[in-house]
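Internal ticket - ligand job 509, 5'-O-[(L-methionyl)-sulphamoyl]adenosine:
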Amino acid sequence: MPDRFYVTTPIYYVNDAPHIGHAFTTVIADAVARWHRLLGDDTYFLTGTDEHGLKVAQSAEAAGVSPQEQADRNAARFREAWDLLGISYDDFIRTTEPRHHAAVQALLSRIKDNGDIELDTYEGPYCVSCEAYYQEGELVDGEFCPIHKSKPVTRLKEENWFFRLSRYQQRLLEWIEGNPDVIQPEGKRNEVLGFIRQGLDDVSITRTSLSWGVPVPWAPGHVFYVWYDALINYATAIGLGVDEERFASWWPHVHHLIGKEIIRFHCVYWPAMLLAAGLEPPHHVHVHGWLLLGGEKLSKSESGAAKLTDIAPARLVDDFGVDGFRYHFLRDVPFGPDSDFTYERVVDRYNADLANNLGNLLSRVATVVAKKCDGIGPAPRPDSPLAAVAAEVHDATARAWADFQPSLALEATWRLVRETNAFLEENEPWKAEPGPAVDAVLGDALEVLRIVSILASPAIPTATAEIWRRIGLTGRPDEQHLPAAAAWGGYPGGLEVVKGAPLFPRIAT
Ligand code: MSP
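stdout (structure tokens):
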């Protein structure tokens, strides 16, 4: 039986167009899913859009369209952006779909039947942009949202249905303390533990102040608060309430990827809801930091002309290509801490790793094969000095992907590219007479290109497929199976090697 691998991104609000902050999370999830497909794992990669709530309703009103039209329009933009970036999702869930309404109603009814959803009155400061209530003590200067700083909160009073979160404090602590890897990185795990240990208040999970949401089946006029509908998407997509066998085949072995601002929802409320419904909490939550532009979180920044949220993925794809875009976010943005986004860093990384290292290796090899071997690629040597490096690189790359560290994985893979360039410079096959010595060096380099095409395919799927084709192989690198396909000696030799235009034209600085 192959292993099963279920990975999710947050579902994105449709009040806005996709920007590079959204793309960052989605590209990481995509690359990790692609890595697991290479391992032969049964892989399910879910993304989608979060379409209910006040924020979406208000943005639709401002745009003069209905919330559904706004959702349709922007969900389509997310799909387009992901298609552009080669995102290989298996399912794109929209929370306005009937399948999702059914799952939300089923799960929350189950919690109510278990006695953990009850009627009560709530009054408190509410931030519409966050779609969240805050405690008075959390506000900035007594009136502003702690996340949005300059946005005043609204005071809401509602008779709502409450989820008895307070009853789950002990079980949540047991879940996290009993599973040291469940929330990564460690600092975020400690943050969640600290929050839970302070004591948990019950939370209001329904609204009567708007109708744009999933109707509460037992209370006409109420809709579920957007977050309690949204979180359930991860269960809807794998069949909750419809196909319990399918659901059980994926749950709870999930990897949720989330930004740090939504940690409480994913590490406190969501697992508590699952426990209350008699289900297991998720097995892995991976928390990453923010992309920053000028020191302010780009997606929430309000000052200045250049906001991260104004940078559409297509804008960077125009300059760097899909693979240049993906490579930057995977290689240069470590998964975990906040990271500064600058255009110059994208250029530098592109030129260094893609144009000068990988692109150069391919073009050198293809040029010399054309000149010295009549365009027919020789086979590698079984005892090549590069064989041991390739084996080490494979192991280091695999470990880093398993740890959700794409940056380290690519750093490891590129060691092989760099060492092969150095190996060519040492041996200078372009200066030697055609013959067995030249064939040996070029065969080794072609074998490295084959292996690197496989190992780098989760990050740069288009370019690696092109390298594969140019060195004369059939099929695609992302159809290969690891670890066997990375074993030294797979390049058969005797294949036609095509020169072609530069794979990554250098960008002028
Ligand atoms: N709809 C909720 C999530 C519900 S999940 C059940 C939401 N949506 S969002 O559109 O605001 O996007 C959230 C995610 O987008 C973040 O958690 C993060 O993964 C990503 N990012 C948005 N802006 C970002 C940055 N500036 N930097 C990094 N990631 C960013 O919250």
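Auto-summary: The longest helix spans residues 343-372. The domain at 344-496 is CATH 1.10.730.10 (Isoleucyl-tRNA Synthetase; Domain 1).
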